[in-house]
UniProtKB/TrEMBL annotation, chains A, B:
Residue ranges annotated for the RNase III domain, each copy included: 18-145
The gene coding this protein: rnc
Annotated EC: 3.1.26.3
Entry keyword annotation includes Cell wall biogenesis/degradation: no
One GO MF term attached to the UniProt entry: ribonuclease III activity
Name of the protein in question: Ribonuclease 3
Reported function: Digests double-stranded RNA. Involved in the processing of primary rRNA transcript to yield the immediate precursors to the large and small rRNAs (23S and 16S). Processes some mRNAs, and tRNAs when they are encoded in the rRNA operon. Processes pre-crRNA and tracrRNA of type II CRISPR loci if present in the organism.
Species per Swiss-Prot/TrEMBL record: Mucilaginibacter ginsenosidivorans
Amino acid sequence: MPIRRFYKLYLSPNRKYVKSLKNLLGFVPGNLSLYRLAFRHKSVAQNIKKGVKNSNERLEFLGDAVLGSVVAEVLFKQYPYEDEGFLTELRSKIVNRVNLNQLARKLGFEQLIQYDTKMVNSTRQSSLLGDAFEALVGAIYLDKGYDFTRNFLVNHIIKSHIDIHKLEQTETNFKSKLIEWCQRHGKDITFELIGNQEGESNKLFTVQAIIEGEIMGSGKEFNKKNAEKLAAEKACEALSI
Amino acid sequence: MPIRRFYKLYLSPNRKYVKSLKNLLGFVPGNLSLYRLAFRHKSVAQNIKKGVKNSNERLEFLGDAVLGSVVAEVLFKQYPYEDEGFLTELRSKIVNRVNLNQLARKLGFEQLIQYDTKMVNSTRQSSLLGDAFEALVGAIYLDKGYDFTRNFLVNHIIKSHIDIHKLEQTETNFKSKLIEWCQRHGKDITFELIGNQEGESNKLFTVQAIIEGEIMGSGKEFNKKNAEKLAAEKACEALSI
């Protein structure tokens, strides 16, 4: 064991924190302040300069991008005969907030995240886990580089905790999700096919998802079914369903 | 000069293609088939298996992710005191289709892209350039790895061709862009404030951008101006303006 590593794990004043990170991540972190930042929710952050807080939000921005790139490569290689639509959809199933929240909870992030319980309600608390996961990816990237982060994500996260094949099977059916929601809330929903716009290809279908007379989502695709699907997806997004 | 490199540039049957890529990219490519694929638009692609074509679309998916990650890091480091909202907005100004199209045109992609002029109209043709740029990033990533791709993008693309500081200053005014486009095409445009939905906060404004009676974009924000802005942005996106 190299001396630095030994010092960090057994002698340094931060040894307890280093050990808990090592248990979580499977490796000894280098720059501890990055990891502390990744686990610091904005509710406990301080202003460091002109309104910018030392919260994990900037790291979340970076980590989200790195995670997206790693997952893109994994899927690109794992599914050589699927098109980019399939890859995009499957990636969003993997990196969506609900999935990342569950993952972070399973990994035991709750003990590591610093946040103000008074300022964070229970809904936000759960998305706070997924946000911290992305921030952690950003921290690892800055600390150890892309290839390390990629190997960490592939070997410690994706292989052990994400069942890509299962996610592939579970189709997120936005149309039935939307219709169900409308039924539950006693709202009227229709899908309307809209005429083509000037200059548009005849083969293009535009469908609007209309709830209580208000257009909540619109989709343009080369077949009607997909246009409906897209309109439903956008409406779900607009309504945060 | 290593023998392989010498062979590729001066002796191989592909030496002409290798040279044109070297002129464009500044390095000698490894796996040529990846680069050929990056420049192959779907209009000239063949089916390789159950409906999947050997076009650049899968590489575009991968390259989009890698590019997003590299630009995220560049901005993260260049703007240490800006929040994630600023970083997200600036990144989208850099990697948006219009900007990537211009970039690809400037780099001379037009000579390299293979596409069927009969099947591609002029509007699509221009987004074809930006798409190919992203696909090229995917090809370089698979050929040379992340760090190489990152250095290539930073040193050959971002430093030489992208004025981040200027983009930071230019606010993309989607509303005036949309109105301008409507005037040019003789289309009627209105922005309509929609009543709140049941259960929604009173402070929330929903604005729809309506062109020729059709809702082309909708925005929900805590002030009317921002809701209009968002509606205009979505309409611009829907119309590929």
